[in-house]
Specification:
Blueprint (H helix, E strand, L loop, with lengths): L19 E2 L13 E2 H20 L7 H19 L12 H7 L16 H7 L1 E4 L6 E3 L4 E9 L7 H16 L6 E10 L3 H12 L6 H18 L6 E11 L2 H18 L3 E6 L2 H16 L1
Helix pairs in contact: 1-2, 6-7
Organism: Paenibacillus gallinarum
Keywords: Membrane, Transmembrane, Transmembrane helix
Protein name: PrgI family protein
């Protein structure tokens, strides 16, 4: 039977500082969401630091206006450094990333043919894409593939079908090989009709009846596909891609067998999964670069 409740498992690299505490009393007084230990400790350190500076340095000797101004500035700085974002990262953890973006050279990556490719590789974490099979080689030595996928879930499904899909998804992730990372990307892009164009060309080449009308009809279909539909900005739709990272070829092959098994047997999680070729990878990465350029 499918699960009715889901949770995000705790990461294995969590420490005691990531432990969360509920600071809300039974009467509802307090903070209405859990607070991590590192935030509580940082607030205490900030309070002790303020007390020491006011009591033991020249700040406390400056009178009430100086103390009030210092308190306001200290509070704003503490909030900016201690406040956590949605990923539970504190502001102080982003300081080094901010320092890298302060110089203009850290905010722009030149991609002209005469520029060095290493900075762009570091941005995408991709070292190379194999022209033969589209295999992705990452900078850290891992390998992977990108797939154009189509799911089977729908809001119009019956409850029993939804339960089957949820059970399959749960089973799929439990069988993932160790060290394999799966990334989903949803892109709003135009329709690519290369296969449809190839089918029209094959149909025209295999015509057994010489008919001027049929040739005109097939030419019209080719022109509509090529000039009115193919990768047109006005005819866009959502396309989903799956990018996999694996530490070795064995782990990648194990994942691909798991993916192909779902598509060919049940099709409950993935109704279609097509490995991107080198040319399709160029097109996909081109759409990502266009988003980054904006």
């Amino acid at each position: 039977m499918a699960k009715t409740r889901f949770k995000i498992p705790t990461t294995l690299d969590a420490t005691y500082f990531d432990m969360e505490f509920n600071l809300q009393s039974k009467s509802g007084v307090g903070i209405n969401r859990p607070v991590s230990a590192k935030i509580i400790l940082s607030v205490l350190l900030s309070g002790f630091g303020w007390f020491y500076l006011v009591a033991q340095t020249f700040v406390g000797k400056g009178g009430f206006p100086v103390i009030m101004g210092f308190t306001i500035c200290w509070t704003i700085l503490s909030v900016l450094l201690i406040k956590a974002d949605k990923t539970n990262r504190m502001g102080i953890e982003l300081i080094f990333s901010m320092l890298n973006y302060l110089p203009k050279s850290g905010r722009y990556v030149p991609v002209r043919m005469s520029d060095s490719v290493y900075r762009f590789q570091e941005l995408l974490n991709i070292k190379d894409v194999d022209p033969e099979d589209g295999m992705i080689h990452y900078l850290d030595g891992q390998i992977g593939h990108a797939y154009h996928i189509v799911g089977s879930a729908s809001a119009l499904m019956f409850d029993q079908d939804k339960q089957r899909v949820l059970d399959k998804v749960d089973s799929f992730y439990r069988k993932l090989p160790v060290g394999v990372e799966v990334i989903y990307d949803t892109v709003n892009e135009g329709h690519i009709v290369d296969e449809q164009l190839a089918a029209v060309a094959e149909t025209k080449a295999n015509l057994k009846v010489k008919s001027k009308g049929l040739n005109v009809l097939l030419d019209e279909q080719r022109d509509i596909l090529k000039y009115a539909i193919n990768d047109q900005q006005g005819l866009t739709s959502l396309h989903q891609y799956l990018i996999v990272r694996a530490p070795s070829e064995a782990a990648l092959s194990e994942f691909e067998n798991l993916l192909i098994g779902d598509v060919e047997n049940d099709g409950l999680m993935f109704r279609l999964a097509k490995t991107l070729s080198y040319e399709e990878m160029e097109r996909y990465l081109g759409s990502v670069i266009k988003v980054l350029d904006q």
